[in-house]
Amino acid sequence: MKAIEIRRNIRLGIFVAVAILLVLLALFTIGGQNNLFAPTFPLQVEFRNVQGLQGGDRVLFSGVGIGNVTDVEIVQDTVIRVQMKIKERVRPFIKKNSTATITTDGLVGNKIVVIEPGDAASGPVDDEDFIVAKTEAGAQELINTLTASGQNVMEVTGQLKRIAQGLEEGRGTFGMLLKDDQMAASLQQAALNIQVTGRNSATITGDIRSMVNQLQRNREGLVSTLLTDTSFSRVYDQTLTNIRVTGENTAEATGDFSRFTDKLNNEEGSLNVLLADTAFANDLQRTLTNTARGTEALAEDAEALQKTFLLRGVFRRQRKQEAKAREQAQEEAQQKQ
C-alpha cells in the first residue's frame, strides 16, 4: 500500500511541476508579447477612424513588433485617441515627426498600428508625445471604391453598347460613314483632293524657295533692287509725292474747268455771247474776212516795195547775208558729223 501511495504522490508532484512550468511559460510568453517584463514608455496618436482597432493590438515599427495598444478613447466626434505602450529600447528610432497608420495584420487578421520612421533631425519622442496620424484606405473603403468603379464600368459598357448598336444601324454621322457607300466615296475623293493640294503646296513652296535663292544670287536684278536698294525708297517716296501733287493740280484744274463751264452757261457772259449770239458771230466772221484781205494787200505792197529801185539793193544784200549764214550753218553741221 505504501509503495502504491508513494508512486501516486510522485505522479501528482510531476503533474503539478509540469503545470507550474506551463503556467510560468505562458506568463513569460504573454508578458513578452505585452511588454510586461520590459521597460516601456507611453505614446499617443489621434485618428479620425480607427477601423475597429482595440486594446491589445500590436504596434509595429518598420515591420518589427515594438509594443501594444493600451486604450482607444473617443475624444471628439471626429477625433479618436489611441494610447500605446512602446518598448524603451526603440525610443531613439521613433522621431517626433514619425507617422502612424492603421492597417490589417495579413488579409483578414487583426488591426495593427504601423509607425514609420521620421526625420533624424527632429529628435526622438518623449513620454506621452503625439505622433502624426496618416490615414490609409481600409478594406471597406477599398470595397466601396471597387463597387463604385464596377458601376462606372457597367455604365460605360452600356454606353459603348448603345453606340455600337447605333453605328450598326447607321444612325448618326459615323453610322452613315459606315453604311453609306456614296459618302465613303466622297470622303475618299476629299482625301485625294487634300493629297493633291498638299503636293501642289509643296511644289509652290519649292518654286518660292527657288525664286528666293535666285533673288539672293542675282543682286543686280530689278526685284532684288526693289527689295535691297535703300535709295529706291527715296525715289519711291518722291514719286508718291509727285503723284499726290499731280492729283492736287488735277483737282484744281477740274475746279477751274467747272467754273469755266459755269461761265459759259451764263447767258450774260461775253463767252456765252461769242458762242450763242449768231449776229455777233456773223460780225466776227466779216471782221476776220476783212482782216485776211487786208493782210494779203499788205503782203502785195511789201513785195512791190522790194522791187522798187530805192529798196532793191537793201533787200538783195539782206538775202545774200541770209544765204551766207545758212551755208555757214550747214558747214558747221557737217564738221560736227
UniProtKB/TrEMBL annotation:
<dbReference type="Pfam" id="PF02470">
    <property type="entry name" value="MlaD"/>
</dbReference>
<keyword id="KW-1133">Transmembrane helix</keyword>
<dbReference type="InterPro" id="IPR003399">
    <property type="entry name" value="Mce/MlaD"/>
</dbReference>
<keyword id="KW-0812">Transmembrane</keyword>
<feature type="transmembrane region" description="Helical">
    <location>
        <begin position="12"/>
        <end position="32"/>
    </location>
</feature>
<feature type="domain" description="Mce/MlaD">
    <location>
        <begin position="42"/>
        <end position="118"/>
    </location>
</feature>
<keyword id="KW-0472">Membrane</keyword>
<dbReference type="InterPro" id="IPR052336">
    <property type="entry name" value="MlaD_Phospholipid_Transporter"/>
</dbReference>
<protein>
    <submittedName>
        <fullName>Phospholipid/cholesterol/gamma-HCH transport system substrate-binding protein</fullName>
    </submittedName>
</protein>
